[in-house]
Amino acid sequence: MTTILVTGGTGTLGRLVTERLRADGHEVRVLSRHAQPYAVDLREGGAGLDAALAGVATVVHCASSPRGGDEQAAQHLLAAARRAGVGHLAYISIVGVDRVPFGYYRSKLAVERLIEQSGLGWTVLRATQFHDLLAMFFQGLSRPPVMLVPAGVPDQPVEVAEVAGRLAELAAGAPAGRVPDMGGPEVRSFDSLARAYLRATGRRRAVANVPLLGKTYRAFRTGGHLAPDQAVGKGTFEEYLTRRFGQG
Q1: 74, 83, 163, 186: most buried by Cβ count inside 10 Å?
Q2: How far apart are CA 147 and CA 159, in angstroms?
């Protein structure tokens, strides 16, 4: 089996990708800012990155931050991967990065383009939002007595373990370029997802749908972040909520 480096290997997705690859018999190195022996901040690069990549055949790039720095991190990673002779880099991106003018999405699209132009063998998988992300979002929105959600916005959340399985499968194979998107099983309104979260957590809140302004909101409202033709995920949001909170 090959030696595979997973960046962001302690995160929500990266941890599951690491577990899947190890279960399949691969030697896996986990790279993150605090995970020894490969504690590296990709935004800074440095000798630690070269050491982490020595002898690595494949990189699964899961490290990402909405707070910025993804492009700089990718440049450091790609340069080090070329020096190390890495044959395959698999990257997780987001459905709609080329359609929704949201800052974080634009950064993810820029990283995709850096990877495509890197000279390395590459695979890019775009997925819709994870159930975990929606739960975190709704946790914040449900703090006030009235839960305000963006009006008219649909979503298609997907189970992170399913994305991890698909990404691990792709990483173990040959470079495949841009592969079909991966979406959750249902396209739902934010309103219905928010109400499902409230039921599962036992919180009593009024839900108000608030119209917003701007190109980003319009793109989300018209479904630029959805993949209805690739609704390949199986786990529903209610099933995730039941598993996490004990009731649906």
Answers
A1: 74
A2: 24
Residues 156/128, Cβ–Cβ less than 8 Å: yes
CA distances from 217 to 99, 159, 210, 213, 220 (A): 12, 24, 11, 6, 5
3-245, CATH topology level: Rossmann fold (3.40.50)
What does the H/E/C string look like for 144-161?
CCEEEEECCCEECCECHH
Q: What is the pTM of this model?
A: 0.95
Cα(195)–Cα(187) distance, rounded to whole angstroms? 15
Are 55 and 83 spatial neighbours (Cβ–Cβ below 8 Å)? no
Per-residue pLDDT of 155-181, as tens digits, reads 999 999 999 999 999 999 999 999 999
Rounded CA-CA distance 21/13 in Å is: 12
19-66 pLDDT tens trace: 999 999 999 999 998 889 999 999 987 779 999 999 999 999 999 998
Treating both helix axes as pointing N-terminal to C-terminal, what angle do 190-201 and 131-141 enclose, rounded to 10 degrees? 80
